[in-house]
Design goal:
By secondary structure, this protein is mainly beta. Helices cover about 0% and strands about 35% of the residues. It has one domain: Beta-clip-like.
Length: about 110
């Protein structure tokens, strides 16, 4: 089921390191701290993560787990790494509990500079 808060689109900015790939975008303005979407994927011990995957996100109290959205995931897999873009991060990853109390890797709106 698609997330109504987000959409994916092809990145066409030729100076963006991910130009030609898809990115995740907010469907509407969201306040700082708002939950955007969960990053969903296959969970493994960090030591067993697929180092060739571009979709791995480490998590856990000591980053001892890896979440790989390469083959299993949702729209969250299209969130792009802000590094090497000259821009600041506009989202951040934080652990959260869902309604059933299960641990999730959430993507949240980051604070604006200033």
């Amino acid at each position: 089921r698609a997330c109504p808060r987000t959409f994916t689109a092809l990145l066409t900015d030729t100076v963006h390191p991910a130009c030609g790939e898809f990115g995740l975008f907010a469907a509407k303005e969201m306040p700082h701290g708002a939950w955007v979407i969960d990053y969903v994927g296959a969970v493994s011990l960090g030591e067993n993560e697929d180092r060739s995957s571009d979709y791995v996100c480490d998590f856990g109290e000591r980053s001892e787990l890896a979440l790989d959205a390469r083959h299993v995931g949702n729209e969250g897999r299209f969130v792009n790494d802000y590094r090497n873009t000259g821009r600041r991060a506009n989202v951040e990853f934080r652990l959260r509990r869902d309604r059933r109390g299960e641990l999730r890797q959430g993507i949240f709106v980051a604070a604006k500079e200033g």
